[in-house]
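Might you be able to review the protein record set out just below?
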Amino acid sequence: MNYNSWYACIRGCGRRYSIYDVIYRCEDCGGLLDVEHDLAALKQVSAEEWKKLFDQRVRSNAWPYGSGVWGKKEWVCPQVDNEQIVSMYEGHTNCFRADRLGREIGLPDLWVKLCGNSHTGSFKDLGMTVLVSVVRQMIRDGKPIKAVACASTGDTSAALAAYAAAAGVPAVILLPRGKVSTEQLIQPIANGAKVLSLDTDFDGCMRIVQELTKDPTIYLANSMNSLRMEGQKTVGIEIVQQFDWEAPDWIILPAGNLGNVSALGKGLLLAKELGVIDKLPRIACAQSQNANPLYRSFLKGFKEYEPVKAQKTFASAIQIGDPVSYERAVKTLKAFDGVVEQAGEDELANAVARADRTGLYTCPHTGVALAALFKLLARGVIKSNERVVVISTAHGLKFSGFKVEYHSNKLQDIVTLYANPPLELPADYAVVRKAIDQFGLQ
């Protein structure tokens, strides 16, 4: 069966465009564009048949269906040719049963979706495989695209650089100087991207990349390009698939530029529309207190929106004061009876350390989501008998410097509740034995 998708304005003005058009906003009203699918065609396949097909493809060697994204190709980007797909078999990341942490906080059914267990170490791989595959097809079909470009706080640049390198397409990366971890900075450099370190913040980089990509030969790879969201929406579908096609009660995720929550909602709404799940989870967005425009708008019932000047936060990937996908995110939160919570620097740093002590190795952004969970649970918004999935967006190894400073008590103005610095001792058995005895091992 032939399936199809296209761009449509999110404001419902009726304009449609091909996904192969170099366009990011509606030409009539300026609204962002979403990818829409031919639901009538998709509904000709039963929910049980979709489940069976998707389950059969998990980790298959049949190209490209072993990917967690391309295993759901009909729901993602059906018209791209398989030979043009650029995939690193992204997705199929572990849903970690956070048993010990859950018991500690009184939430026995707690899970953490480890999206950082991916090729470049973040969930951004899910979206970039789609965008770069479409760009590759556009170039093959004669579009004069010379490069792909993005503004980034680290993870987007790593994903774009890797997938562009695999496709043989030049990548241009705009990063805010001094606001990206060393581990994140080296990724696009190593993959051969042209990296520009700008004396500004992410919002400043974003303004410049939007000007840069007015040139149709430089293709925009940020999440205002909804091709990214088509790949990222599979994380929600994958979560319900991992629970035998049953939606959890809550999904909590860190929120910065807000493409992630919009994508999550898209995938789950499509699954519900096609009968694959029979209920929707509630969604909680977690923002850093130092970059919280969505949280402030939530407190006002989303009746007002004011960008903020994002202040420094350990959760650097969500240090964004003027998120591009705000309008999309609000629609998603309303559809999912969603809430927004914030976390301060103390709260997120200690949430990371507490989670790590139970076997996780979380990034600061996941710390924001976990801190939000602790607060929502304490207030009774989340109930102790509910199933909760926290989305961990990046691997903790990208933020080892942050963790070293935490456990060395070097984080300024942070009271570290779980610091665990190594003991430096002479190589003397008696001294070592005495130190071990003082640990009070049971």
